[in-house]
Amino acid sequence: MKKLIIIGVLITQYFSAQYTDITIVKEVKVKNKGVVVSAHPLASEAGARILKMGGNAYDAVVATQYALAVVYPQAGNIGGGGFLVGVKSNGEKFTVDYRETAPLKASRDMYLDKNGKANTDLSQNGRLAVGIPGSVAGFFATLKYCRLPMEKIIQPSIDLAEKGFAITEQEAEMLNRHRDAFKKHNKTAIAFVKDVPWKAGDILIQKELAETLKLIQKLGAKGFYEGRTAELLVAEMKRGNGIITMQDLKNYRVAERKALEFDYKGNHVVSMPLPSSGGLLLAQMLRMASFENLEHYQQNSAKAVQIMAEAERRAFADRAEYMGDPDFIQDKTNYLISDDYLKSRWKSFSFDHATPSSEVGKIIAQPKESTQTTHISVLDKDGNAASVTTTLNGYYGSKVVVSGAGFFLNNEMDDFSIKPGVPNMFGAVGGEANSIQPNKRMLSSMTPTILLKNGKPFMVVGTPGGTTIPTSVYQSVVDVIDFKLNANISVNSPKFHHQWLPEAVAFEKNFPETTISEMKKLGYKAERWNQIGRTEMILIDETGNIHAVADGRGDDSVAVE
Fold this sequence. Notes:
The protein is of the alpha+beta class. The chain has 19 helices and 19 strands. The strands form four sheets. The chain has an eight-stranded antiparallel sheet with strand order 1-2-18-17-13-12-9-8. Strands 5-4-11-10-3-19 form a six-stranded antiparallel sheet, covered by helices on one side. Its EC number is 2.3.2.2, 3.4.19.13.
């Protein structure tokens, strides 16, 4: 029995010359079928097509990522990086770290002016903001867990780029909003700019990107990191102040790391270790909150939010001081998630008042800005699970498209501490642990996560949103395990976020006013945000029933095998 909740249909044939049949499916209840949840219906369908061809969850998640690079260019990418957390049906757990790295010519003070002041424009926009892309290498590193050859996995994305697809209203608005930035940072014509504004239903064709994908299909990873595409990328660097070289691209390596694992109330959590701060923050926040028996409260009640926000405050203070690329720093993960440390951290908590952030770290004024990454959750009919979060960092990354190759480049260098104590574009403060060094991976907030119950996948979850990622995943876990909510309510309920600095707690615009008022009486500062995250969740019960939900905040969609 399959339940579908569907919105927004443009009527034509799916396999027409152009992809104009775009069906957004927000919720599916199914059994003995594979499911894919992503930020775009055509990308989810690409993953589902691969499942139908005999691929497993890892084939599907790679196909979905390639497709997102075409249909969701603000965050889907081959010019960025990401993290994959996988749990195979036999219980094997693995991660793939294809986070971008700093070029060989990068240096600690590369974004400081002659007076030592940080120039965040250089770290956020244009060619100097670009880290060495890791996505394509990550897709090939995932291939050993796949069933199908890359030539088949990549084909749906080639078709989408070559034939074109109808953009949605949200996508048209995004392209129009960034038009001036695209023109400023690109010296040649790009597919994303036209003479008149974009509107829903317009066809976006990306011939150059199709040719780039064909080179990858034909030559493998070398089709991106060497030869024509690499030469075009380096030529793009030379059009501005970029520093990535052919040697940087050829030397890029994926890191396969031991998953961060811990237990939470009878469930086994599998998440991403450093250089993602997400898994570590999730472990800290869940364990600190458990000291106050969250299950006794209601979702988004004042006491529940206070407990959770105070756990977020303390975890993010630790993020700034301790977290970075584990290949360059002393990895203190075990210490930071130990009961003794977390109990000492929690001693200052009181239901009577907000804990001043100055008590858990040094106050530094900082801005609040938004972000865009993208998440994919996949489960196949055999029980293999994949949770992937990938990004260009900001919307459309550096705003630079590689001329002749057709893809956006990231602005991930901004995720380093460009000057210790100076916040990045998402307001996150960093210290020496995350300072810039050649070949170093920048700290991330991405939190792809899989929960197991009795050794089998119970939840596959993740979200975009910069520093709001770990707090949104945290709320998702608590919603389901402590508050006993279903996937739909958890995903679409209003979220909140606190990250130590700034002092204020951010609440989505539809968050309960009574809770905010009670929090203010306790000394909390509050801010209203239009949106926090876009969670993609799959829940599997003990009898194998699958409940997959795509976030209602965007064009996110579920596809079934």
